[in-house]
Structure formats: structure tokens, C-alpha cells
# Entry
Amino acid sequence: MPLVTTTASSTLCSKSVRSERRRWLVLSLPVLLWIWAIWMACLPAPASAQGRTSASITQMRLEQSDDGIYFTAAVQFELPSLVEEVLDKGIAIYFVAEAELFQERWYWTDRKVAQVTRHMRLAYQPLTRRWRLNVSAAPMTGAAGLGISLNQNFDTLGDALDAIKRVGRLRMGDVAEIGDDPQQQVMFRFRLDTSQLPRPFQIGVVGQSDWNIAVERTARLPVEKQK
# Structure
């Protein structure tokens, strides 16, 4: 009786099985990724991030003077120890405060009539052991931005942070530009701006709640006359 070899058929069968497995994996990958995303979303937040209030706005005010309308705000936040460690190493951190004025329109979306932004750069000076705060209307990344900023020096970090928390006299514009409505709708935003950090730090702070200092509020404010 002649011998029958089954090597070829076994090889074809093995290749067919591997092909089916690869096809199954390709088809199942989107479903597996979807299940993984749902599982990650259901995980509880880390203990350090639970119940965290990054910042709060304690005051918002509009004031009219002879040369225009000014906005003032006060923000409260605590600087996390991780951010303090970065400051102690000589790395500057940046804050941004932004105010917008809107004119309400019943027939269309509200119209923005004014917008002002304040950038603040805080850095420790090891030689003088003092804290320097630079304030500018534009981002201060690089030496060029620091050339058009106002500078203040403080003996302690607490004093410097108090100055940052008091967002005073942002000039929104002339009365003729804004209008003489006794109340104005204002949107105010304040945040720790990680986009102006050195590039390696921008990558390192992704997902770290310690760097999530941000707050926003919209309100109708009376325009107070300057006394």
C-alpha cells in the first residue's frame, strides 16, 4: 500500500487557522478599545484629585472713570507643593487673567465688545533671594516678551502670590465703545498657563492635577462710578 503524505494539507490548514486568528483580532480591536475606554472612564479619580477646588473667584467689579471702564477681580487658590518645588529650581511659572464684555442681543447671539488679557510671570531670583513678577498684555515666553512687561519684586512667595490674586484695573475700553448700559455682562477666566513652560515641563505636567489651577465665571455686573 502506498504511503500518503499529509504535510502539505497540514501546512495549509495551519496557515488558514493563523489567518482566521489575525482576521478575528483585526475585527475585534475596535470593540476591545471601546471596552477599555469605558473601563478607564469608570475608574475613580486619584485621592489627590478628589474634591479638589483648583481656584475660586471672590470678587468681580466694573468701574467707570474719566478715561474708560475698568474691570477688577480677586482670585483665591493655593499653590501646590509640586509647583513650589519647580519655582525653587529657578523655573518660572505663568498665569493668565482674561476678561470679556458682551452686549446682549435678543435677536442674535451676544456680541463681544471688549476683551483684555493679562499675562503674569513669576520667578525666583536665587542671587537676590527675592521673587520677581512680570506683568504684560502679551505672552512672555522668551526674552522679547519680558522687555515690554512691568516688573515687581517681593521678599516672599506669599506676597508675590497675593499680587497675582488681585487682578486690578483691566481697562476694557471707552464708554463710547462699550455703551452706557448700567449693567454689563462679563466673562472672567483665570488659569495657570502651562503652555508657556519650557517644552520638557509641558510634556511632564500632562495629566497632573497639581497644575490644574483654573476658574471661570460669567455675571452681569453694575457699572460703578469712580468716587
Remarks:
- The first helix runs from residue 7 to 42.
